[in-house]
């Protein structure tokens, strides 16, 4: 009986998400096929269960103040979500000081469009694509969400299923830099230039519209004040426009970096929130 019991336990564990085998496809160039000559070649990684079939997809952009980071740092996120039947695409994008925010947004859009064109071959559903990111990557994800019309449509006309912003920076970069460009904010001018028109063009709160796909904002209670203030202004604009499909969840005692490193622990609240949002949309 003990042997049978242990065999059953082993079978259960092997079939559970913790032991699910994955396909990890690394260093796929997604820029060269887009004919966008002004953008550098950049790569992405795809994490998928080996028997993936029509699964939801999360395209993730990392943070790093628009000047640092790389996709290799986020294999833990790809692995853990893929084991929960979400295909994950983690993309590199151009960084400052070599490139400015227009190139970053164009590259992020190209990564999502590549995903829409190719993710079926990895077992993903092109009609259920979510964009996400942490910090500066959350900013890029927010720009894609509010400028959804710039994305390709799927066969049924759908573009995004939703967006998940994790302690996103720069939702109102225009307002922030107006106040701080001579001081604290000066360090961001390599990415955002010294032109207020550019600051506004790449601040997602000024492009909110009634067609916004469902959005989930996750924020740490102890994150940077600039992120809190920007999100509050963003949500005020949401309320003024009567947009109802934006949800904010504040994580008690969490600081900025722990908002992304908490994905290392699979039993945490963040997985319940993220997976629940994906399932609902």
UniProtKB/TrEMBL annotation:
Coiled coil: none annotated. Residues 1-20 form the signal peptide. It holds the Pfam family BD-FAE. One of its GO terms (molecular function) is hydrolase activity. Residues 44-222 form the BD-FAE-like domain. It comes from the Bacteria. Keywords: Hydrolase, Signal. PANTHER family: AB HYDROLASE SUPERFAMILY PROTEIN C4A8.06C (PTHR48081), KYNURENINE FORMAMIDASE (PTHR48081:SF33). This is Acetyl esterase/lipase. It comes from Algoriphagus aquimarinus.
